[in-house]
Amino acid sequence: MGYTITEKILARVSGRVAVKAGDEVMAKPDYVIAYDFPGYTDVYFRQMKEDFGIERVAEPDRYAIFIDHMVPATSPKEEELHIGTRTWCAENNVALYERKGIGHQVASEVGYAVPGAFVVHFDGHISQLGTFGTLAMGIRRNLLEAFVRERISIKVPQTVRVNLTGTLRKGVMARDVFHHLVRVMGPASCRFQVLEIGGPALSQISTEGLQTITGLAMFTGAVTAIVNPDKERLDYALARAKKQLEPVYSDPEASYSAVYEIDLDNLEPLVVIPPTPANSRNLSEFLGLEIHAGYLGSCASGRLDDLRIAAKILEGRQVKSGFQLNVVPTSQEIMAAAGREGLISTLAEAGAFISSPSCDYCFGRIATMTEKQRAVSTGTLNVRGRMGSPDSEIYLCNAATVAASAIEGALADPRKYL
Amino acid sequence: MTLQNLRGRVAFIFDEINFDVDQIVGVKNIKITDIEELSAAAMTSYDPDFHASVKPGDVLVGNHNFGYGHPHYPPMRAMRHLGIKGVIAESFSPGYWRGEISMGFPQASCPGILELVNRWDEVEVDWDKNEVRNLTTGKSLPIEPLSFADREMLDAGGLTEYLKRPVPAS
């Protein structure tokens, strides 16, 4: 009998020798992470005191708060929310990361992606810490439990195993791998379960690419995604880790609810057509569709892999007149590295509008598209109204396709520019 | 534990798989906070007579992976205001499930529910026997049992009241 990496992590944090899928346990998260957002953090901070009489969190090192939405603030009301967050963090001696980038990425950069750790957030995209063998779950408003109690109630999830095989072709990116998983397995295939990704092709997917794939896990129905970390992932994570844990790995005889073999050999660039992340299609079916705006960024994409391929495509070329291309590196660290590589100047010379890191282009705050306008996007979602009018449309795709489409003002195959 | 059975009519059946609950009020209305205004917007694109026909105690029925996408809280807030007491679906998307259970809003996962009921049938969800009974036809189907924590949360009436109870033994 063997255990999955998920079962091993949850056994440790629930103080048990072993747990199996289906067990209900009280688990102590290693880290409790949130970004400040109205109706979430401001409510937790108030409820802690008013409903539970808790003046200070007991172990401040277990908490981290990010200010990445409403950055920059555009009204005194938004700034008031940030002030409340800064005040609470200072009073509680809790780490605050402001204007460092999108928190799900920065969490890895500053060391919360500890291999073997259990992390909770209200937002499900925290699943991307799974790249490093960290079990990170978004539990929505239930995160309050982690602010007022040491342990949270959790049912140990089952695991769906995906083995990647084959070789990715030119112009096909991690983003396509994820949307292909949704297409093959279905948007409900991993409901309430953990998506564990492995297989011989895993090592050719960059760490950044894995952050993309694991960060989108929710669209398979998964509660999170995780990888048994190899040396490359461990080298990144252990050098930054906030604490040292013994990394754990799934046993060869671990029990999975389903196992999928996913061959990457013949994968083409994909596009996810509106209005749901379940709609993966081959890009080739939609080439030439008129597009008015492009967004390259988000916690899912917007890393160096994405910026490099976009710069390669746009070097010496121009964004089509009237097309609005917004490029938003995922973090300050990434933006600085992109600057050193010359990617920022290449993109700027091509006509891209480049913003400092922020969640605001993705979650519907900078959402200006009018009726009948259409965007290509590496954001997380293509639901109605996410980038403006409910009658505008979002086509999700990889960063290369965003760049190629910006040149043509229409959905374009990036491979001809590579 | 005293979690009360749901008993009411099937006020609507959402037969779309991966149903995005935001569609209940429409994305353009999702930021409305006034409950009367929000409720007035709810269901208008599905059934203009919904407000006249729904009554307190009614339930909703859904297909597989109900709540997929990026669910927000206002649609079900509006439905509760109109008297809806719970949702029974073939299966649920976890983000939606967690969010609504934390609001103290009962959700029952019942494979086969679409075959079991027609609109306006009278149904009962029995949390102790773990079944849904169609009181109109006399047929029943099992539901997937609630986890201990989910049941406690519903019994307490939502997340905050649940957390005021003693911490369960680990």
From TrEMBL, chain A:
It holds the Pfam family Aconitase. The keyword Lipid metabolism does not apply. It comes from the Bacteria. Keywords: Iron, Iron-sulfur, Lyase, Metal-binding. One of its GO terms (molecular function) is lyase activity. InterPro entries: Acnase/IPM_dHydase_lsu_aba_1/3, Acoase/IPM_deHydtase_lsu_aba, Aconitase_4Fe-4S_dom, IPM_dehydratase_rel_enz. Residues 86-286, 289-409 form the Aconitase/3-isopropylmalate dehydratase large subunit alpha/beta/alpha domain. Transmembrane segments: none annotated. The keyword Transport does not apply. One of its GO terms (biological process) is oxoacid metabolic process. Heterodimer of LeuC and LeuD. PANTHER family: HOMOACONITASE, MITOCHONDRIAL, HOMOACONITASE, MITOCHONDRIAL-RELATED. This is Aconitase/3-isopropylmalate dehydratase large subunit alpha/beta/alpha domain-containing protein.
From TrEMBL, chain B:
One of its GO terms (molecular function) is lyase activity. InterPro entries: Aconitase/3IPM_dehydase_swvl (IPR015928), LeuD (IPR050075). Keywords: Lyase. PANTHER family: 3-ISOPROPYLMALATE DEHYDRATASE SMALL SUBUNIT 1, 3-ISOPROPYLMALATE DEHYDRATASE SMALL SUBUNIT 2-RELATED-RELATED. This is 3-isopropylmalate dehydratase.
